[in-house]
Each structure stands twice: as structure tokens, then as C-alpha cells.
Amino acid sequence: xxxxxxxxxxxxxxxxxxxxxxxxxxxxxxxxxxxxxxxxxxxxxxxxxxxxxxxxxxxxxxxxxxxxxxxxxxx
Length: 75
Prior knowledge:
alpha/beta
């Protein structure tokens, strides 16, 4: 459905950075989409796992805070 609408970029926010966000962003990347993780709009009960996950995601996705993303959209 997303490809039918010419959607190529998926933006991720939510909870459980090291579980739901990371696995969904990896799946999106594997399917040919460009994942963007909004770093100040994701969270976890485990701060260490959250930070590790953001570092892992930075290798396969764009990981920026909401201000940086909004600034780039406005340009």
C-alpha cells in the first residue's frame, strides 16, 4: 500500500526503542524504505538499551531529533 502511494520514507516514533522501533526500522530498511528515527520521540524502560539501540539504528537509518527533522522538512 505504501509503494502504491509512492511512499519511500518511514518515520518512527514510540516506545520500546530496542524492541519495536529497532525491529520495525530494520524491517523497513530491508524492504527498501528509508527509515527515519526521531530520537527524542522514542523511549524505553531501559536507558542503556535505548541508547545502544539508537547507536545501532544510526548505522541503517537516519537518527535525528525532532527539531533537526522539522528543519530539514522546511527547507
